[in-house]
Specification:
The complex is a heterodimer of chains A (340) and B (368). Chain A is an all-alpha fold and 340 residues long. Chain A is built from 16 helices and no strands. The N terminus of chain A is likely disordered. In chain B, the strands form four sheets. In chain B, strands 6-7-8-3-9-10 form a six-stranded mixed beta sheet, sandwiched between helices. In chain B, strands 13-12-11-14-20 form a five-stranded antiparallel beta sheet. In chain B, strands 15-19-16-17-18 form a five-stranded antiparallel beta sheet, with no helix packed on it. Helix content of chain B is 26%, strand content 34%. In chain B, α3 packs across α4. The chains are: A mainly alpha (340), B alpha+beta (368).
């Protein structure tokens, strides 16, 4: 109260001044305001925003931008580990890329990747979606639902090294648990050679499906949970049966969510190294190699850094193109529904 | 089209820790082609009742019949009901035309026929210009029309509307009320309309069922509800502004038998016959209700009057509401907009003897 009285007594705010108060005129402010000492304000100090934004940017620059630029640079040079330490590398243009794209090893690995995408990543999303919808629509007890959800998510929580070793043990041809079980059940009459040239890629896919199906399951399940219940009541009242509801309402509404599950698994597929390394090391005879594994093999184990960088860039470009196309599609879908 | 009858219907929601009795012993018959509104404050059980009629909610006990068929165990599809939802519940991935035609699509109607019917309905509801759009792009009013259209497109036994106007602005609401009334008059469908807004209920319905605290309080036409409310709740809930209530005691004095209002000097007179009837009533403490519209400022001087001091004069355009105080009692009267009464003025408001409603103080039921 006292402040407002003080303001009224200041000359600038006298009635004859008429019109709005001049905010720039110090005379219009009360005395307590004009005479107070400015205090350091942490929130608006000039260096605070710079520090808050700058530090993360600096960190990101060190761990993302610098290595990326470094990679692009060395993809165009004949760098290997020896030359790197000697500081002696030469510009060779796109020779590394030519090597990569012309090598049979890369061609084979692309075929392997295709198989892995179709029967690994796609299968995981389809299987995960089916499991998620079964879990939501058919399991009515809340408790049972949570228990099943946790049980199905458990494999995803294991580190890849454990998953690899686990499946390697389970699938060991001579005395592995799975072969033994199949034999005892009479389904096969001799051991399956899980890790021979014909099967090794499929063996990795089996372990990977076991490991990662829970991710699309979680994505689709959470998508289904967030669909408005009133729409389902409307469908019931309108007379739609379970199958029609699934085909005409649930799946179209989950379209984007399932697409996101696909893109997440596809992105992982392009950089899929861990299980390959642990279970087969790409063998036998490079029959289970994927592009990212070759990049790792060439760069880290065979010291051909320039070539490995070229591999990485090719993978990067292909996945970037795919993701851009996907995002365009997603935007189109959302726009058609009037959301964006 | 069908007659819907509810017999001793109960709904109890059970959770691990407690039990909520949402609807208790409800008996109600909705005649073929009738428009009935379920009116009540939030949480009174009206939506639970409606969801039981539709078949979205199990019936804890009691029977619901459509004509002579017991429908307790039938699902919504078999009951052949159509419903418009408070939240519209349109299918977001369908165009408006697909939304409208979905009930027909499910029933296997040919595409050309579906198209034709969807266009007919859209024309009635004036949404024929947005048939290719999707629900996300529409305003609330348009979405509500689509939701109505989706329910109207087939020929259901009962047509059910759940708070359909609650998200629509006042201006559009009047238009929609008019449209809905016209649709009902044209189609002669059995309709049940749930609302918490008495204006909507009284404007639309042939009969209004008032609910409170899980129980049906009264069913009747707007005249029944307004002039002979069954109890204090209905008298209070129906009418705007709400009825004035006076806690009164029956005393015999110089003016004959009168109701003396507690905590004030006010005395409310009664018709001769009524006074005798009440005198025979065992209770002495009664609740008296007089509607603000029944109190007239400067009315016929031969009529009895209440004296009070004006506390507030609310100007509402075509009328004013006077809030008056006498002792501990506050009450309101609807008066002419040009009334000059100001705070502190002493005024007399007259009332007719037959506008006095008397309720039991204990059971709150009407006595006369």
């Amino acid at each position: 109260m006292a402040e407002t009285t003080a303001a009224a007594e200041l000359p600038g705010s006298q009635p004859e001044a008429a019109g709005p108060l001049d905010r720039n005129d110090p005379a219009t402010y009360p005395e307590w305001f004009t005479t107070r000492k400015p205090r350091a304000n942490l929130i608006v100090a000039r260096w605070v925003p710079i520090a808050l934004v700058g530090l993360p940017v600096l960190v990101l620059f060190c761990i993302v931008v610098y290595p990326t630029v470094w990679m692009f640079y060395h993809a165009l040079h004949d760098t290997n580990m020896m030359r790197l330490f000697q500081g002696n590398w030469n510009y060779i243009g796109f020779e590394n890329f030519a090597t990569v794209l012309n090598s049979d090893r890369f061609g084979d690995s692309v075929v392997h990747l295709g198989i892995y995408l179709t029967f690994g990543a796609c299968l995981q999303v389809i299987l995960g979606s089916i499991l998620a919808l079964i879990l939501y629509e058919l399991v009515k007890s809340n408790f049972l639902r949570v228990v099943l959800l946790i049980a199905m998510v458990l494999p995803m929580m294991l580190p890849p090294s454990i998953v690899g070793v686990l499946w390697k043990f389970l699938l060991t041809p001579s005395n592995g648990a799975i072969n033994q079980a199949l034999l005892n059940l009479g389904l096969i009459d001799q051991h399956i050679e899980w890790f021979n040239a014909g099967l090794s890629l499929w063996t990795i896919i089996i372990a990977d499906v076991w490991n990662w199906t829970a991710l699309p399951l979680l994505i689709v399940y959470s998508g289904r949970v967030s669909l408005p219940p009133a729409v389902y009541e409307a469908a019931r009242v309108d007379g739609a049966g379970a199958w029609t509801t699934l085909r005409r309402i649930t799946l179209p509404m989950l379209k984007e969510v399932i697409a996101i599950a696909f893109i997440v698994r596809f992105m992982d597929a392009f950089k899929f190294v861990d299980l390959v390394f642990i279970m087969t090391s790409g063998g036998p005879a490079q029959s289970s190699e994927l592009p990212a594994y070759i990049a790792f093999q060439r760069g880290i184990r065979e010291f051909a850094i320039g070539e490995a960088a070229a591999y990485a860039i090719v993978i990067f470009i292909v996945s970037a193109v795919l993701i851009t196309l996907f995002l365009k599609y997603l935007k189109k879908v959302l726009k058609a529904q009037g959301f964006a | 089209m069908a007659r819907v009858s509810l017999k001793d219907v109960n709904k109890v929601y059970r959770s691990r820790h407690d039990e909520v009795h949402a609807v208790s012993d409800l008996n109600l018959t909705i005649n073929d082609g009738e428009f009935v509104a379920l009116l009540g404050p939030s949480g009174c059980g009206k939506t639970s009742t409606l969801r039981m009629i539709v078949g979205l909610e199990d019936i804890t006990s009691g029977e619901i019949h459509f004509d002579d068929t017991l429908v307790n165990k039938l699902d919504s599809q078999a009951r052949n009901v159509a419903m418009a939802f408070e939240t519209y519940a349109l299918y977001p991935n369908f165009t408006i035309e697909e939304n409208l035609a979905f009930p027909l699509e499910v029933r296997g109607v040919a595409p050309a026929e579906r198209r034709k019917k969807a266009r007919e309905i859209a024309e009635i509801l004036r949404i024929d210009d947005i048939l290719d759009q999707r629900p996300g792009a529409l305003s609330g009013g348009q979405q509500q029309r689509v939701s109505l259209g989706r329910a109207l497109i087939r020929d259901p036994a009962v047509f059910i509307l759940d708070e359909v106007m609650s998200h629509i602005d006042a201006h559009l609401k009047f238009q929609m009320l008019f449209d809905l009334k016209a649709i009902h008059q044209e189609m002669k469908k059995t309709m049940v309309y749930v609302t918490h807004d008495q204006v909507e209920a009284l404007a639309l319905a042939d009969r209004v069922a008032v609910m409170s605290h899980a129980e049906l309080q009264q069913v009747g036409t707007r005249n029944d509800l307004y002039h002979t409310p069954a109890n204090v709740f209905v008298a209070d809930f129906i009418g705007e502004p709400p009825t004035n209530f006076f806690e009164a005691e029956l005393v015999s004095g110089a003016n004959g038998t009168v109701l003396k209002v507690q905590g004030t000097e006010l005395e409310i007179l009664l018709e001769e016959g009524h006074a005798q009837r009440i005198a025979r009533w065992s209770e002495k403490h009664l609740t008296v209700g007089i509607r603000p519209q029944a109190l007239h400022l400067g009315g016929d001087p031969s009529l009895p009057a209440l004296e009070a001091e004006v506390a507030i004069n609310e100007y509402l355009g075509e009328r004013s509401i006077l809030t008056m105080v006498n002792g501990e009692q506050t009450f309101r009267a609807v008066v002419d907009a040009d009334t000059a009464a100001q705070r502190g003025d002493k005024v007399r408001v007259h009332y007719a003897l037959d506008d006095v409603m008397v309720f039991s103080g204990k059971t709150e039921l009407i006595i006369l």
